[in-house]
UniProtKB/TrEMBL annotation:
It comes from the Eukaryota. It comes from Athelia psychrophila. Residues 265-294 are annotated as: Disordered. Keywords: Membrane, Transmembrane, Transmembrane helix. This is G-protein coupled receptors family 2 profile 2 domain-containing protein. The chain crosses the membrane at residues 6-28, 35-59, 71-94, 115-140, 160-182, 325-347, 367-389. Residues 279-291 have a biased composition (Pro residues).
Length: 398
């Protein structure tokens, strides 16, 4: 008979894990800007642990549970375990899909009706099949069995239709999908690196020069002075033409006596009295060289291209992100495998159901899953956390 202290320790461990998982799920929702994953996982986990805690009324002795509560607990436990596995699988598929197919970019973590098959369809079908055979064969009776919660007793094979067997099939399917996804991600990374190297081999990059504020102001002042002098030259030229026309029309008899030199002298004298004082040597803009007939611009040389934010960044290694996804998927597969070990062992060896088996361990890992995988509270494995989630939770360092 399993000691009550061991049952109580297991129940407290699951409860604390559920409480600690909620802040992590909140950080995950803020990081990916999507709430459906965190809400479904957190609510389902809370409901399952709540039914475990209610069992304390009967000192966590399943043989003393009322029949109605026992059947309800069996249905809820099987449903919740499949919902948790379904939402974890949906999150992994959504993340991989957004990376493999960029057209889904902004909708990669958004809700899709296809996830209903994993989160609702599969749990309902599994629970219906398991409970149908369990009730028909009388495998729901807990007399003579001491466990923390109600489960399938004898015969044990209907449990294979629930969380005792089907999670192993899901684990194998997700492992195959993971191998395909990692290979495709590696191909995309190699293509991105090759494209970047091709660009850098064809374009000469030069560091952007630093400009001094005083030099900039001096250049602007010189440009304005040149523009003012050009405007003054244009006005003087117009004045010369107008004065010459007025003199020739008003005093035609004295046209010969008025020399160009005297006219220029008078005009220059008047202009000297004005406020315009051009520089000693006029500035002339250099004439551009004509383009060749064939349009070849190589005569101008090659100007360096400065680095701008619009250019693609150098290829960064995606191995860190890939390892985080692999760690998440490895944890998901491990929990599904551990969930089925005790049932498969008992069915294959024709043994009685164990009072505390691998399924109890898997449920405790499920409660602590978000904390262990994303590593925001327990800093155990460096590749297991998402920096954006930890940054949001560590509010005391903001």
């Amino acid at each position: 008979m399993l000691p009550y202290s061991a049952k109580l320790a297991w129940m407290i461990l699951c409860t604390i894990g559920t409480i600690c998982s909620w802040p992590v799920l909140y950080g995950l929702a803020k990081a990916i800007n999507s709430w459906w994953i965190s809400v479904i996982y957190g609510c389902a986990l809370t409901i399952m642990v709540l039914f475990f805690d209610i069992g304390m009324i009967w000192r966590l002795n399943s043989s003393e549970f009322p029949l109605s509560f026992c059947l309800t607990q069996m249905v809820v436990t099987n449903m919740v375990m499949f919902i948790l596995g379904g939402v974890s699988c949906a999150y992994y598929i959504a993340t991989i899909r957004s990376a493999l197919w960029p057209k889904h970019g902004k909708q990669g973590i958004k809700w899709s009706n296809a996830y209903l098959l994993l989160i609702i369809g599969l749990p309902l079908a599994s629970t219906f099949l398991q409970m149908s055979f369990t009730i028909k064969l009388g495998a729901y009776k807990q007399t003579g069995f001491d466990s923390v919660f109600c489960g399938v007793t004898e015969p044990l094979w209907p449990k294979l239709l629930g969380y005792g067997g089907l999670p192993l099939i899901i684990a194998v399917a997700t492992a195959v999908f993971t191998i395909f996804a990692v290979r495709r991600l590696q191909i995309m990374l190699d293509a991105h690196r090759k494209l970047w190297y091709d660009i850098t081999n064809q374009i000469e990059f030069a560091p952007r020069p630093t400009t001094d504020y005083q030099d900039t102001m001096l250049l602007q002042t010189a440009e304005s002075a040149v523009q003012s002098y050009g405007e003054a030259q244009r006005l003087v030229s117009l004045s010369l033409d107008a004065a010459r026309g007025d003199v020739e029309s008003a005093v035609p008899s004295r046209v010969a006596s008025v020399t160009p030199c005297s006219s220029l002298h008078n005009l220059s004298k008047e202009s000297s009295e004005s406020s315009i004082s051009p520089p000693s040597a006029p500035l002339q803009a250099p004439r551009p060289r004509p383009l060749p007939a064939d349009g070849d611009v190589s005569m101008y040389g090659t100007a360096p291209i400065y680095r701008t934010p619009t250019l693609p960044p150098p290829p960064t290694s995606l191995f860190a992100e890939i390892w985080r996804l692999l760690f998440f998927q490895a944890a998901f597969i491990a929990i599904n495998v551990v969930m089925t070990v005790s049932t498969l062992r008992s069915v294959s060896g024709n043994h009685r159901p164990s009072e505390f088996g691998s399924d109890h361990v898997a449920m405790a890992l499920t409660a602590w899953g978000p904390v262990l995988v994303f590593k925001t509270i327990l800093m155990a494995v460096d590749i297991g956390h998402f920096p954006s989630i930890r940054k949001r939770l560590m509010f005391w360092k903001r």
